[in-house]
Amino acid sequence: MRKIEIVLAIIVVFITIGTVLGVYGIERYRRSQLYDAVLTARAPENGNWYPQKIIVSYGEDIKIYIRNIDTVSHGFALPDFEVAANEIKAGDIEIIEFTANKKGTFPFMCTVWCAERHLEMRGEIIVE
Amino acid sequence: MAKDKLFGLIDINWRFELTRFKLIRSLFKSRWFPLTIILVNLFLFVIILLAGLLGGFSPGNFNFGVMMVWILWWVLLMFVLVPVFSRIWCMMCPFPIFGDWIQRRRLLMVAEGKLGGLNKKWPKKLRNMWVMNIGFLMTTFFSGFFTIKPLATFILLGSIILIAFLLGIIFEKRSFCLYVCPVSGFQGLYSQFSTAEIRRKNFDICKKHKPKTCFVGDKKGYGCPWLVTPFSFKKNTYCGMCLECFKSCPYDNMAFNIRPPGVDLLVKEKRGLDEAWKSFIMLGIAIVFFMTMQGPWGFLKDMVRMTTWQGWLTFISAHSLISLVVMPGIFLLFSYFSRLLSGNKEISVRNIFINFSYTLIPMGLGVWIAFSFGIILPNGSYILHILSDPFGWGWNLIGTAGFPWTPIWTNLMGYFQGATLVIFYLFSVAYGYRISKQTYPKTEEAIRGWIPILCFLTLIVIVFLWLYLG
């Protein structure tokens, strides 16, 4: 009977901690295989872009996964590489692709009026 | 003696025992049931909590936590679980599993000797619904956040689970479930209307059986964790359907019955002001929830969502006043008129107030079922999305992540709500008159005394019809 209790205890640990670790692990692996960077869009009042600096390697094909966790729409533009996303609605995801064919620091910004401090919603992509 | 038939159709004393079927009885006697379902729900709630935490301030309609709790689970509770199966959610609720584990030092088998934890007795003065009443009311102060911000759902559920665990260590058995859990309060109240019950079968068997293992426990089952006496209890209010009594009874003398709806309302024992106030609180919350969530008044939504502190404080003050003072106050007036009209001056207004408050139970349940139509029909389609993409990470587990928002039968919603309100109003009327005959000794007093209460019920249903149907 003790064996059953031990097995059940392991099941409970698996269901609780195991699920959390499993979900994080799967998503981390998925993103590492699919994307070079994960960008969270939030209005400046709620924390701004996260991260605000993204470092990528020169010459690589870059995929950025943008997730809007706000309750308003955001946009995205990286003018120096001529890439942009239209409106990213609240809760939605957008994938941006470009080739990092020049070195330097390049600004990206939100292109949909989202909040009072919308103009502060900026970040940098550093190609080195 | 003539049978008392509800609406002239169903004998109020009719019961159909489901556990007469060997398969169901075996299931109920197995220690694996309901543990297996509890573990499944534990997994679901881990996902809910994780989605809530990860969802942060993102929109609730794309969040597994918000959608599963406030759309699916809530609607299931109101539509099916409580009105049909009484407190069956409590049977499979994962919240107390860790507290139970500490107490029993076991997940499955029955431990011998004293239970673990401090095993303190819950304070006598609080062995009622008052803590749950105030707790549930205070929870609704933040209703503007729970259904919108996943993090708010995480904080609420996480707090409940933590409190359940801590109280499970400190107090005996399921004290948390009995006296604190916010879900427990309305389940206990509305389960009195339910079409299911657990009761002992043969009184003589219980009378001769010593010790009463359904209450003290034996090798096969724990003594009732809900601190009720399975051999004698008469109302669903505090029976959490944990099924321990099925396992611990050596005579198979416990039964799971299907029965006509509302029969517990006629049980005179243990009627109290706490349950009366719970009825008013639930009605008051229904009015406020409808006005703030489904009504056209934008300024109310701003108040609920704490756009300004002043607005929110006004909201919680008005909300508390309606539920705790205004509605009971109006009902008190009608109770007073009931006594006046009955001509009987010997029965206290207090007794009249308490007894007739139970007529609000069917009405209240109907109000909440009607409200739930307004939740599920416009928003139910989001559930397909979140089943595929529970964390808003771009997953597509079952291929429905792109399923568009699709309101269902919203053009008929008013009819569903109206019909529900009327049906449950009729149940209130049916039981109300019976309660009047219990309250007043003479039939003519009961008829006269019933009229003001009937007027109150009619007023309430008109108010809700106006609110819901416009």
Q: Secondary structure elements and their pairing?
A:
The complex is a heterodimer of chains A (128) and B (470).
Chain A: H1 2-34, E1 37-41, E2 53-56, E3 61-68, E4 74-78, E5 83-88, E6 93-99, E7 104-109, E8 122-127
Parallel strand pairs in A: 1-3, 2-8
Antiparallel strand pairs in A: 3-6, 4-5, 7-8
Chain B: E1 5-6, E2 10-11, E3 16-17, H1 22-29, H2 35-55, H3 64-85, H4 88-92, H5 97-104, H6 130-140, H7 143-146, H8 150-170, H9 175-179, H10 182-190, E4 196-200, H11 203-208, H12 213-216, H13 244-248, E5 254-258, H14 273-294, H15 298-304, H16 309-342, H17 349-357, H18 360-379, H19 382-388, H20 413-439, H21 443-469
Antiparallel strand pairs in B: 1-2, 3-5, 4-5
Helix pairs in contact in B: 2-3, 2-8, 3-18, 3-19, 5-8, 6-10, 6-14, 14-16, 14-17, 14-18, 15-16, 16-17, 16-21, 17-20, 18-20, 18-21, 20-21
Your description of this structure?
The complex is a heterodimer of chains A (128) and B (470). Chain A is of the alpha/beta class and 128 residues long. Chain A has two domains: 1-34; 36-127, Immunoglobulin-like. Chain A is built from one helix and eight strands. In chain A, β4 and β5 form a beta hairpin. The mean pLDDT of chain A is 91. With 470 residues, chain B is mainly alpha-helical. Chain B has two domains: 12-265, no CATH class; 271-469, no CATH class. Chain B has helices at residues 22-29, 35-55, 64-85, 88-92, 97-104, 130-140, 143-146, 150-170, 175-179, 182-190, 203-208, 213-216, 244-248, 273-294, 298-304, 309-342, 349-357, 360-379, 382-388, 413-439, 443-469; strands spanning 5-6, 10-11, 16-17, 196-200, 254-258. A three-stranded antiparallel sheet of chain B has the order 3-5-4. A two-stranded antiparallel sheet of chain B has the order 1-2. The longest helix of chain B has 34 residues, at 309-342. The chains are: A alpha/beta (128), B mainly alpha (470). The interface between A and B is medium-sized, with 24 and 25 residues.
